[in-house]
Amino acid sequence: xxxxxxxxxxxxxxxxxxxxxxxxxxxxxxxxxxxxxxxxxxxxxxxxxxxxxxxxxxxxxxxxxxxxxxxxxxxxxxxxxxxxxxxxxxxxxxxxxxxxxxxxxxxxxxxxxxxxxxxxxxxxxxxxxxxxxxx
Length: 135
What we know:
Layout: E1 8-10, E2 18-19, E3 31-35, H1 36-47, H2 52-59, H3 63-82, E4 86-90, E5 94-96, E6 100-103, E7 109-111, E8 129-131
Parallel strand pairs: 1-5, 3-4
Antiparallel strand pairs: 2-4, 6-7, 6-8
Helix pairs in contact: 1-2, 1-3, 2-3
């Protein structure tokens, strides 16, 4: 019986829900699902320019596990680019470092501090907010 997967720490959820290829009518095509932990691996290694050891410590996984997550993310992004597929983000096997919320009106993502959090979106002041799923 396989071991239970440990949750991967994600500091901040992606600021987008997905990307679509421009100029390609692919409405009925399949989508590529990029997991939050895969997005985090790409962000840490390629955007923040961390080495795999530093990034793995931040995500609370081993260096080898980080390398597998990173490789999976790169393959999915390459697949989506070559085959003109839409990329969507899904939660996956992760937990968010803080409590994150999303506004149903303007789709902003934000954290609300424990003290002073009044249940309003900081961007549009809407009360229609929902928590992002946190394992």
